[in-house]
Amino acid sequence: MYNAIELNFLEPIYLKPNINEYGIEEEISVEEVQNKIEQNQDIKLIVITSPTYEGVISNIKEITRIAHKYSIPVLVDEAHGAHLNFDENLKQHEALNSGADIVIQSLHKTLPALTQTAIMHINGELVSENKIETQLAIFETSSPSYILMSSIQECLNILENQGKELFEKYSKNLKKFYDDTKNLGKLKILGNIVAENLPYDKGKIVVITKNTNITGKELAEVLRKKYKIEVEMSSINYIIAMTSICDSEENFERLITALKEIDREIAFQDNKKTKYIFEIPNKAKGINEAIFSESSKVINIKEAKGKISKEYVWVYPPGVPLITPGEIFDEAVIDKLLEFEASNIEVRTSSGNFPNIIVTD
Questions:
Q1: How confident is the model over 137-158, as pLDDT tens digits?
Q2: Half-sphere exposure in the Cβ direction for 291 (13 Å, CA)
Q3: Which of 37, 109, 265, 298 has the maximum number of C-beta atoms within 10 A of its C-beta?
């Protein structure tokens, strides 16, 4: 998205989700979309990530309905939702079924396909298929991988011929996992505490360590070293374990056993000092203006308060910038970055030199 912003000299307008008590972003509200459209009459495209990395699903149907009233197309990054249409409980929330104009799905994240396999769906009349084909010819290779293309075809064959059976088994495995982890004493499983009326992909197993004496990063290390279980990502207060139809019943049992043992061994600890209110930093310049500015200086992050960033700063995964070029470092951003660093969570920058930062005047 930021590459597109730079190439086309665009101005991003951010949709802000709520952040729950565990530091996990919730869905994009329909009201937030409505308000942003009314406040910015020249919006050309709405981009929503649904499901999120943590499995949170936004109301794409209502968001699309509102956007289409203003003839604004909706693009949904459904990288983590290629499987939704095969889940009887979630298919109604799948972006294509909800009327989105462009939907991009990564087959390799939640379905049996090789890495780098993805599909773009074009839906409705607000998007020109010819224009998209022209841009793909510019930005994609002219030498496609037939290995990856055959992987996509095989994935579709599996879904067509075995999909119903595989997803029924997968659903049973997930249900058993959540039932067996309901009574954990200290660790919490997001899927067990999320509101019943909110659509949520329980295939994303989010284990919360807040108010215990271990961080998400430390929990991931224990799972890796002691139980030979590798999770998808780890943050300060939680981990994400990715699951799919490829996971066996034995895999789920191993995770259940590991979490129960760890839960018995850890202790409660008050972590109230962690703050989850995070405002988008104030902007002094546009992204391109900051990037191409002749002024440039390298400083330590602890000296950055009030300075204008000349680069992106993010934590990966998931790779969403905490600050972008042209935004001003404030105390909240600096504190959050230092908190990540202190928790041994890697902070990355465009120049790759954190805790040093490139700033501009």
A1: 999 888 989 999 999 999 999 9
A2: 15
A3: 109
Give the tens place of pLDDT for each residue, 200-210. Answer: 999 999 999 99
Local structure of residue 210 (DSSP, 8 states):
T
User: Distance between CA 50 and CA 94 in Å, rounded?
Assistant: 9
**Sequential DSSP letters for 44-71:** --EEEE-S-TT-B---HHHHHHHHHHTT
Report which DSSP code applies to 25: B
> In the structure encoding, which two tokens stand for residue 328, read together?
């001003």
pLDDT band for 276, please (50, 70, 90 cuts): low
Cβ-contact 100, 123 below 8 angstroms: yes
Please give the domain boundaries of the chain with CATH numbers for all domains.
2-151 (3.40.640.10), 163-265 (3.90.1150.10), 287-360 (3.90.105.10)
State how far the alpha carbon of 188 is from the alpha carbons of 51, 144, 268, in Å. 20, 44, 12
Strand runs labelled E in the chain: 46-49, 74-77, 102-106, 118-122, 188-189, 204-208, 233-234, 238-242, 297-300, 308-309, 313-315, 321-323, 347-349, 356-360
